[in-house]
Amino acid sequence: MAFGITKAEIEEWKKKVADGEVALLTHFWKDERFPHSHAVTKAGCRDLGKLAEWGNRFGLDEKWIDRRSSYPHYDLMGAIQIKVLEHYGRNDIIHKFKLKKTAD
């Protein structure tokens, strides 16, 4: 279950993914399989080759791409989530979703 984002943010992410951009979307998230994660960042792109190449730069395996929807994406949690968000200068997202134990 996703929460903490607006419908407009979701629609913007979907448009970018559909247009072949690598787009990031972070939201609060609860999943029993991942009890230590309270938020996820979806890194999506309709172009699977481009998405796999992007993921490779961050040490992600192509087999981890979620292909079940019209919006293929990696689900990023924990240290890799923070690494990617920091790479893109998204400290605002790290702060908003309290992804680090201590403040920067």
UniProtKB/TrEMBL annotation:
It comes from the Bacteria. This is YneQ.
